[in-house]
Amino acid sequence: AQSVTQLGSHVSVSEGALVLLRCNYSSSVPPYLFWYVQYPNQGLQLLLKYTTGATLVKGINGFEAEFKKSETSFHLTKPSAHMSDAAEYFCAVSESGGSNYKLTFGKGTLLTVNP
Amino acid sequence: DGGITQSPKYLFRKEGQNVTLSCEQNLNHDAMYWYRQDPGQGLRLIYYSQIVNDFQKGDIAEGYSVSREKKESFPLTVTSAQKNPTAFYLCASSPAWNTEAFFGQGTRLTVV
């Protein structure tokens, strides 16, 4: 079984500060990992993904995440927060291989950016 | 433009009535999914379909039904058996297994 834990349901940062959103996962097979962003009353948009290869993944809007197998983590970072980054962020995991697809989401982290 | 269209955006129904949420995609994706989103709960998988005329239950299928008669369409029916249907419903599709899912804009269902 796979699962995702996002530490902190709400993170607040100042504009220009580092953004760090934490995600830990469990998976019985090598995982595929994703970060999505959701603005109010909208669908989810993919920020970045890890499947294989380089463990540091760069995404849109200046975000990046690093896959650390030993820590079962996939934390999302951005060096300098913008007001437009205020949104809810979801980490998700799927299991590589197999015949059944299932994308499991964390409960989300709401990011607030203060001026 | 290619994408996923969910309609309507807002839907109100009386308790005890069945209601069908529409999801159409023109991305030529094989796989389609329905998720339910409640505050603080993340996204929970209701049903998914890998191919036309085939679908599987997700984690919270009770009280819901789906069909996949066409590749482009994956409607979700919320039946009167669903005890707490008020939620935000998201449809998604993906081109193949273990690739990222593309989401529609969602339908907010309120049952009164």
Can you walk me through this structure?
The complex is a heterodimer of chains A (115) and B (112). Chain A is built from no helices and 11 strands. Chain A is mainly beta. In chain B, strand 9 and strand 10 form a beta hairpin. The A-B interface holds A 4, 9, 32, 34, 36, 41-46, 49, 51, 90, 94-98, 100-108 and B 4, 6, 31, 33, 35, 40-45, 48, 50, 56, 58, 88, 90, 92, 94, 97-98, 100-106, 108.
The succession of helices and strands of chain B, N to C, reads EEEEEEEEEEE
Query: Could you give the count of β-strands of chain A?
Result: 11
Structural class of chain A: mainly beta
Order of helices and strands of chain A: EEEEEEEEEEE
Supply Rg of chain A.
Answer: 14 Å
Quick summary of this structure?
The complex is a heterodimer of chains A (115) and B (112). Chain A has 115 residues and is mostly beta strands.
What is the element layout, followed by pairings?
The complex is a heterodimer of chains A (115) and B (112).
Chain A: E1 3-7, E2 10-14, E3 19-26, E4 31-38, E5 44-50, E6 56-58, E7 64-68, E8 73-78, E9 87-95, E10 104-105, E11 109-114
Parallel strand pairs in A: 2-11
Antiparallel strand pairs in A: 1-3, 3-8, 4-5, 4-9, 6-7, 7-8, 9-10, 9-11
Chain B: E1 4-7, E2 10-13, E3 19-25, E4 31-38, E5 42-51, E6 54-57, E7 64-66, E8 76-78, E9 87-94, E10 102-103, E11 107-111
Parallel strand pairs in B: 2-11
Antiparallel strand pairs in B: 1-3, 3-8, 4-5, 4-9, 5-6, 7-8, 9-10, 9-11
Descriptors:
heterodimer, A: 115 residues, mainly beta, 5-stranded antiparallel sheet, 11 strands, globular, B: 112 residues, 7-stranded mixed sheet, 4-stranded antiparallel sheet
